[in-house]
Amino acid sequence: MRAVIFANGWFNQLPTLRPDDLLIAADGGARLCLSLGLQPDIVIGDFDSLNEKELAALKAGGSEIIQFPTRKDFTDLELALRHARQLGVDEVLILAALGARWDQTMANLLLPAAFPFVAISLVDGKQEIHFLRGEAKLEIHGQPGDTVSLIPLSGNARNILTQNLEYPLTKESLLFGSTRGISNVLLKESASISLQSGQLLVVVIHE
Predict the structure, then answer these.
(1) pLDDT in tens, 24-57
(2) Full-prediction pTM beyond 0.85?
(3) What would the 3-class secondary structure string for 12-63 be?
(4) What CATH number is associated with residue 49?
(5) Do 135 and 190 reside in the same domain of the chain?
(6) Nearest residue to 194 via CA among 162, 166, 164
(7) What are 147's strand-pairing partners?
(8) What percent of the chain clears pLDDT 70, i.e. is strictly above it?
(9) Residue 163 burial class via C-beta count within 10 angstroms: exposed 0-12, middle 13-18, buried 19 and up
(10) How far apart are CA 107 and CA 122, in angstroms?
(11) Which of 200, 156, 203, 160 shows the shortest CA–CA distance to 184?
């Protein structure tokens, strides 16, 4: 089952949704849903970004409302991810996760690391961000000429193997903090990336 979570950050373009997608709005993400003519299945958060009229409209439309206190341990987006995991979701697409606050943006980029059994992607218009951990393989899709960047997290990423990228890595390492993995290029409509140990953010920018 796939969940599409609407956060409360910048939004550029709605990707293609599946008829059976579970739509979850993290607090102010519900306003984005309504502006797109979408009724979220679930709205979760402390609702400091929604007014009473908007909440009433969401309830009237049939959304399940899950409210948390303002003083809480997790962001609204993490609460949405935790709830999706409890429902058995194994794939998540997050929209509007990037924004003007760098702390929130960086935290959102790293959130997939806290959910090892869920395939999580962040999408912002023509850009998509995937999280890849050691002993796993990622297939990415696009068009020849698309930009692909590999950014190591929490230490060095070792024994990386890529296929169908212009600058191949053949069981090589990317060092934490180095920019060597930035601005690779997709050669075909799909490519694969794997690594033996470490963690990577894989950013695909469609031309």
Answers:
(1) 999 999 999 999 999 999 999 999 999 999 999 9
(2) yes
(3) CCCCCCCCCCEEEEECCHHHHHHHCCCCCCEEEECCCCCCHHHHHHHHHCCC
(4) 3.40.50.10240
(5) yes
(6) 162
(7) 185, 205
(8) 100
(9) middle
(10) 12
(11) 203
